[in-house]
Amino acid sequence: MKFVAKSTDLIKAVQSCSRVIVSASASPILTNILIDCSSKKESGLIRLFATDLEMYYEVFIPAQIEDAGEVMVSSKMFASILDVFSSTDTIAFSCNKENFNIELSGGKTESTLYGMPPDDFPQLPIFDSASPYTFKVPLAKLQSLIKNTSYAIATDQVKPAYCGLYFKTIEKAVRAVATDGKRLTMAEYKFDTDSIKEHGEIIIISKVINELSKNTCELPGDEVEISIYSNQAAFKTKNYSYYSRLIDGKFPDYNMVIPKEHKIKMAVNVTEMLRELRKMMPIASESSNTVKINIAGDKILYSARSPKSGSIKSESTVTALEAGELEINFNAKYFIDVLSTIKSDECILEFNLVQSPVKIYPKEELENESHTHVLMPVRPGFNV
């Protein structure tokens, strides 16, 4: 088994495989990567494959393949050794098919690794339908949907349906929703054509969502082909693919959570509001990140207090679209998470009652995209 590949391609592929692997896996075999020079030899591609049995990942990189074959190698050790070759242009890889020893060389550096026979490495799962529902989304747009929603995915396992990203195709659009019970976010991408139709909802595990957000586009027009089965999904681009189970559970009725009415509406500068909230954090972090927002017409007074450290206040001016007065508390960190996803200079805030959630959305949306964020207040409880 022999091939020569660009060092940058091989290192990047191994790094992406390593993120899939759980270091404390109950099965030692799952801490390895499968290197396959056989399945795509005619196309001049080698395949690297990793799994934690919940998510399966394969990535293809171009190489000059001299001899076909497969070998399994420790992900951690392989990644560490490849760092030594990062300054070389290419890496020559050869594997002895009798003892599976791996020889690496590049520039003036050589290394030997002990590989393992690939026979026991898990295979891709058998999918439960021969005819999945399949559609394509621009990778950049899918990553934008993920960025605008993934911060609200729950990390505890009390409600499994909250621990993933709700995903649904509606007529001419795809919709993503996430919530952890304290905040909710919804994003949509609208297609220019009728190439997509409504399909049932799915909940994608957060690990797949996180990995899709990290892989960069090779070209501006790169697309992701999404195939939905009854309890599995596949996400394929030109160079890599993710396969995973879907979360079984009922996602909450998010339409009931998004406020339909408001008494106060304002436009705020996103950068300025982020700055004001961050000013509060040294004190607010000692009081469960709680910040009081006191609204009076076109003014907002931000304040935070800690019984241990002291207090802080700051005032800013906003554009009052529908003026009013309200004193309401929020988790400042959650508010910062929302504002950090907004790309327009200004966003709209809609308030109702002191116990009602605030609705937040960009004043100017990106092309073919829309975003809505909902943040629950925290109970009143301190004076500044």
TrEMBL record:
SMART domains: POL3Bc
InterPro entries: DNA_clamp_sf, DNA_polIII_beta, DNA_polIII_beta_C, DNA_polIII_beta_cen, DNA_polIII_beta_N
Function of the molecule: Confers DNA tethering and processivity to DNA polymerases and other proteins. Acts as a clamp, forming a ring around DNA (a reaction catalyzed by the clamp-loading complex) which diffuses in an ATP-independent manner freely and bidirectionally along dsDNA. Initially characterized for its ability to contact the catalytic subunit of DNA polymerase III (Pol III), a complex, multichain enzyme responsible for most of the replicative synthesis in bacteria; Pol III exhibits 3'-5' exonuclease proofreading activity.
Any Gene Ontology CC annotation: DNA polymerase III complex
UniProt keywords, alphabetically: Cytoplasm, DNA replication, DNA-binding, DNA-directed DNA polymerase, Nucleotidyltransferase, Transferase
Entry's family note: Belongs to the beta sliding clamp family.
Any one Pfam family match given in the protein's UniProt record, by short name: DNA_pol3_beta_2
Subunit comment: Forms a ring-shaped head-to-tail homodimer around DNA.
GO terms of molecular function: 3'-5' exonuclease activity; DNA binding; DNA-directed DNA polymerase activity
Limits of the DNA polymerase III beta sliding clamp central domain: 137-253
Residues annotated as domain DNA polymerase III beta sliding clamp C-terminal: 257-379
CDD domains found in the cross-reference section: beta_clamp (cd00140)
Name of this protein: Beta sliding clamp
